[in-house]
Every structure is written in structure tokens, then in C-alpha cells.
Amino acid sequence: MERDEMPCDVLFVGAGPANLAGAIHLMNLIEAHNEAIADGSKQGEALDEPMICMLEKGSEVGAHQLSGAVLDPKALTELIPDWAQRDDFPVERYVEREDMVFLTEGGSVSAPWLPPELINHGKPIVSLGRLCAWLAEIAEEKGVNIFPGFAGNDLLWDGETVAGVRTGDKGIGKDGLPKDTFEPGMDLQSPITILGEGPRGHLSRKVIERHKLDANCNPMVYELGCKEIIELPPGTVEDGYVLHTIGYPLDAKTFGGSFIYSMGGDKVCIGLLVALDAADPNLDVHAELQTLKQHPYVKDLLGEGKVVKYGAKAVTIGGWASMPQLYTDGAMIVGDSASFLNPLRIKGIHLSMKSGMLAAEAAFEAMVSGDNSAAALKTYKDRIDASWVRKEMEVAKNFHANFSGGLWGGLVKTGIQYAFGPGSSLEPFTADYAHMKTIADYYGTAEAAVRPKPEYDGTYLVDKLTDVYHSGTMHEEQQPAHLKVVDTEVCATTCKEEYGNPCTKFCPAQVYNMRPNEETGRDELEIDFANCVHCKTCDIRDPYQIITWVPPEGGNGPEYGMM
Ligand code: SF4
């Protein structure tokens, strides 16, 4: 098959905050280099007309971005010092008042003070989608070529060196054969590929596996965050209010918490994050979010509102302990794909941006020297180690391990480590899926595991399918499912028996359904892949590890916009 080829100097995969910051910083470095060559203050050759490209699988930049985004602007200030003075900076509000509350069933206890890590006073509240769209405009003005609607499907290899990316074919039918609309994917050949695909990156995983880049770290671990934007009656939103909760509806063995903060206009967002190593095979974060909204403390704040937007996404929470080797021949990994998040602060955008900028510095040096080997790109990691990123992340390296025994023990251990330092040892932990218990072990009997069917009102309390509608997700239905289940016999037999088909609960978009099949006379798995919001939870939490998420046709998926 003939494919179009496009040679690039540097190829960024994913238009999230890490790569956008990296691309802008790279263009600044190239511009400064060329000016210095031109005025004679530097020896060498100018980097004329550099071909810096960026792929984005969403229909537009920002479409797949979702975060609880009270932004630490540290990296942004380094990149764009006058961001706050720019009229077009997409701030929703600035934080003015913050609370932290422990919720019990029906009650609440306010924290007398906030841990310093959670204090955000004066920081901007942003929509990550809008922030990325704003950064993309700046990157494009500087000459970066951004291609939205193109998913990176495969890595190109030159021996063991990453040599670029092949985008996905478009116009493949459900039967796997080309349709009339078939367009083969394109080969973007690049000596330097920077992978910033977000959590559980499809290509990042391939390069990590092939080069065993995770041989010396803990596995990547995740939370699932479900987030809604709620519109309240006009004039009732408190400007710049941020609330963090822990406790109800989660039990003390399930790690997680929620955030509520005011956005622009009459909108407020609420999000619930729950660790995907939860033992409960029935864990359903979307359902827990609806339960949280019925708690009197939360209902008091939001109960008059209606849900207008929804999204869900996995969040990396292993932090420093899960960070793989960040570079290999021809490639670097940045942002969430490389575990750049501080679980203590539940913040990662600033770390992701800085990782992209430091990878850009290594890429710039490689462009000048022509050396794209792992030995040359190692300067990216050296820069991370010498920067505030390491200082901030390393102290929280045992945060995830601390909570493996439950909330209270975790709080005590984390408090001690905060006061006296984390020590030199890196506490081990295992992958999320290994922690799910069987129905028999967790509930005793199948009857005890049955949850009462919740009653939702369709506006404030909504079911999954209504929320899928709010996510704006769209997929071309005449294409192969992008959720690859290697053995559906397991679903109909062993999994049903042992775990009660947990994918039908943990998927926050009701993609997986066990439905009666007349031919076999039993319930069989049906995959409504068009609902998928690309959160990657199934790939992470499936106890048999037989589900793999791969990118669907470029441009498909959620339309998060203001999330
Ligand atoms: Fe998330 Fe998987 Fe459900 Fe898609 S199918 S929404 S990736 S859990």
C-alpha cells in the first residue's frame, strides 16, 4: 500500500499541555539560535525552516483534554512570563476561598487548616481544553504544524531507533476491509519523536515495552476521574471557591477524593477521583459521583443545578515511583504518559509542561548536533533531575505505597514523611488490576453484591448514558471496535463467575454490556464502542488483562471543549 510520507525534524504526538509547552519552547530556542548565528554571537549553522509537527487524535486541540485544573502556573510563567496580562488568556476564575471537608454518611467535618500542598489561593482556575487551544494558537503562530484528527497508530522503527509515527488508516469497515472512503495513514518520519499522549499512552506503552524502559520503577498506577460541569441558577456561584472532600461515599480502604470549584459564568464543576486498585469488583466511579452529589453538604452547594457536561479520564498517580526511563534512541516520553503528576498535590499540568520544555531542550541539542541516540537524549532526564520537578516530585515518591493499607494509615505515614522526609527507599507496589477481589472474597455471595438500582432525575442526578451524551462523544460506527478483547469466552464464563463482569461497572461510559444471546442461550459481551470517552480504565483495571484500548479513527471520541 502506498502511503504519503512527511519528513519532520521533531514530531510531537499528542497536543496536551506537555507537548504544546515543549513545541513553543523548542521554537523559542530555534529562533534564539538562528538570531545568534545571524548576528555572529554564536558559531554554527542556522536551523532554517525547521519542520516541527504535532499530531492530535481529537477533532481539534482540547477536544480530549480533561482535568481538575486549578493551575500551578510555575511552568507557564517560565514559558510565557506575561500570561496573566494577556487579554486572551482563558482563565475561568482565580481561587479566593478554599475548604477541605471530611464527609461521613450524612455528616461532615471541616479541616481546621489546609495542608500547604493543597493551598491554591490566587491561582487560576482554567479549563484544560481551553488552555490547550490557547497554547496551540501560540505554537502555530511560531510555526508548529499541528494536525488535529490524526491518531498516532504505530511507531516507525529504524532498527531499534524510533524513526517516527504512522497515523491510523481512515475508512476501514466493521469487517476490517477498506470502504469507499478509505484513506491510508501517513508516515511522519522524524529523527526525534516526543510522546505526550496522556495517561496510558498507546505508543508510549509500545516503546516502554520494547525497550523495557520500566525495568527499574514501579508500575504505572491510576485513578479514574469522573467530572461534571453543573449549571446553577444565575448569580448563585461563589466566585473562586474551591472545595476538596475525602471520605463518603468511599470507604476507608478505597483511595480517592473529590473536588468542586467554580468556573466562569454560572457553572461549577465537580469531580470524583478513585484509585483503580480498589478491591471492590463493583466499583463504579460514575455511580459514586451521583451518590456524592446526594450528600447534604454537596447538595446544599449544587442541588439546584443541572449537569451540562461530562467526562472521564484516568490519571497517573504513581508519580516519581512510576516514572520510566524517559528517553531511548530517537524518542522521549513526557507528561502523563511518563507519570508526571504529584499525587500529594493532585497536580500535574505544571509538571507535564515543564517535562515537555526540558524534552524540547534535549531535542534542540539533538537537532544541532545531529545525534538522536539515547546517550544524547539522556540530557532530558539530567535536566529533570536538576530542576524543580525532581525537588517537588521526589518527596512524594512513596505517597501511593503509603495508602496501600487504607486511608488512615496512609494519612499518618504521609504526614510523618512530610515532616521528616520520605527516606531513601522506594516502597514497591503492584499494578492496579492485581488488587481487585472476586465477588466471593469481597462480598461473600453474588446476592450481597447486587446494588440497588439508583433513582436519577435526569438533570442533577444522571445515568451513564445521559452523561455520555453530555460528553459529546462521537465515533464512526462503521469501523472495527477500538476495544480489543482477546477472549470473550472469558467474559461469558470465568469473569462472570469470579468478578461479576466488572467492566460493565467500571467503564464510565457503559461501553461494556452483557446481553442475552439467543444462539448460545447465555449472556455475551457486547461492546458499544461508540460510547467510549477514551478514559483507558478498561485497559488498566480488567482483572484478566485481556482488554486493549487502541486509537479509533482520528477525530473520533469525546468533545470536551470547556472541561
Ligand atoms: Fe474508558 Fe474503556 Fe469505557 Fe472507553 S471502553 S470509556 S476507555 S473504560
How many strands, which pairing sense, and closed or not: the largest β-sheet?
7 strands, mixed
Low-confidence stretches: none
Mean pLDDT figure:
95
Counting helices, strands and paired strands, the structural category is: alpha/beta
What Rg is obtained from the alpha carbons, in whole angstroms? 23 Å
What's the N-to-C terminus distance? 39 Å
Tally the beta strands: 25
Overall shape: it is globular
Helical percentage? 25-40%
- Main β-sheet, spatial strand arrangement: 6-5-16-17-18-15-19
Assembly classification: single chain
Which cofactor or ligand species appear?
iron/sulfur cluster
Strand content: 15-25%
How many helical stretches?
A: 17
